[in-house]
Amino acid sequence: MDCGVPFCHWACPLGNKAPEWNDALYKGDYELAYRLLNSTNPFPEFTGRICPALCEKACVLNRFNHEPTTNREDECAITEMAFQEGFITPRTDIQRNGKKVAVIGAGPAGLAAANDLNLMGYQVTVFEKNEAAGGLLRYGIPNFKLNKAVIDRRIALLEQEGIEFKYGEAVEVNDAFAKQFDAVVISTGTPTARDLKAPGRELKGVHFALEMLSQQNRVLAGMEFSKDERVTAKGKDVLVIGGGDTGSDCIGTAHRQGCKSVTQIEIMPKPVEGPEDPQNPWPNWPRTLKTTSSHEEGCTRRWNINTLEFLGKDGKLTGVKVQEIDWKPNPEGGRPIMIEKGKPEIIKAELVLLAMGFLKPEHPQYAENVFVCGDAANGASLVVRAMASGKQTAAKVAAYLNK
């Protein structure tokens, strides 16, 4: 690969050995490429589609010409070829050790923990409150970014390898429940979205982003909702509050539902444009302006905009009063101070989607055989970090049960 020192290893939370499996791919040895990839990454078909590819930003080629090795696409290609050629088959040689582990939550962290623990020989039962596995992979990420058949294919494989999934079960992890198992892993994510307590928040038409995204994915899976329950952008002017990936997903979904227009506002300043971020030089992740395919489909984007009030008529949203702001350094340090700039204005909107992130969960004191991983432990982050946390927690569980 001629990397010199490959920084992709360092940047990837899973420690993926990109030069090694890329070399196998270059030589046409897809089976070896998958074995090397799967040695660190349990579900490369997920990351190969939706990971922001921290490894690519740390790639040596990105340092010199901003054209890194296409690791994410390579992951996807390797894994799809592995499935197609039959290199991926259920493990039938797992030696059971007689110990039982419960995993609460079937998102990427829970699935990664369950997979590793199952392969170690533990009898794993996964409890999921929703009707299917995947967590935000299934109910947050739109189908145009991740086809749910990709999740179903992997879940079927995990079931064949002996993992039991119990759906529609919201489990309270108390001492009585923990005693039923040798260990319990909590991987319930960050279920509480950050709210915006502005006047008019109660108006019909103001929703959390996941209310729309999860419902749309369920509709595409065949579920039906009444007209009053349906959150749809069809024929509406849409305002997305929040400039991250969830906001981008809302934009793409709104277009597919037939919206009239989409505006996205962010309270923070506009990131620097171009491939380099002076505040975070290579090989760190550059906090630069990110334009997704959803943005390219049509969207007005604005930064340094504060939301003042939701406006409505007869209980229904008609617009949002906003104001341009600026930030100045705090003389005492810490968070910059927000100052008003310009006059308030009104953005027309019949649908507002709040995509401002999620609150880190607080947990009570659990029994000593209970472990917490993924977003439930660390707050909202990337799928690849959740999977890495799941694997690390599986190792901690094994160490605890074998001490």
Entry keywords:
5-stranded parallel beta sheet, globular
How would you characterize the overall build of this protein?
It is a single chain. The chain is an alpha/beta fold and 403 residues long. The chain has 16 helices and 14 strands. The protein has a five-stranded parallel β-sheet, covered by helices on one side. Strand 6, helix 13 and strand 7 form a beta-alpha-beta unit. Helix 4 runs antiparallel to helix 7. The chain is globular and about 70 Å long. The model has no long low-confidence stretch (mean pLDDT 96).
Q: Main sheet? A: 5 strands, parallel
Given as residue ranges, the uncertain stretches (5+ residues, pLDDT < 50) are none
Tally of strands: 14
Q: What shape does the CA trace take? A: globular
Radius of gyration: 23 Å
Provide the helix percentage.
25-40%
Strand composition percent: 15-25%
- Sheet with the most strands: spatial strand order: 3-2-1-4-14
Average of the residue pLDDT scores: 96
Q: What class would the helix/strand composition place it in? A: alpha/beta
Number of helices: 16
What is the element string, with H for helices and E for strands? Answer: HHHHHHHEHEHHEHEEHEHEHEEEEEEEHH
End-to-end C-alpha gap: 42 Å
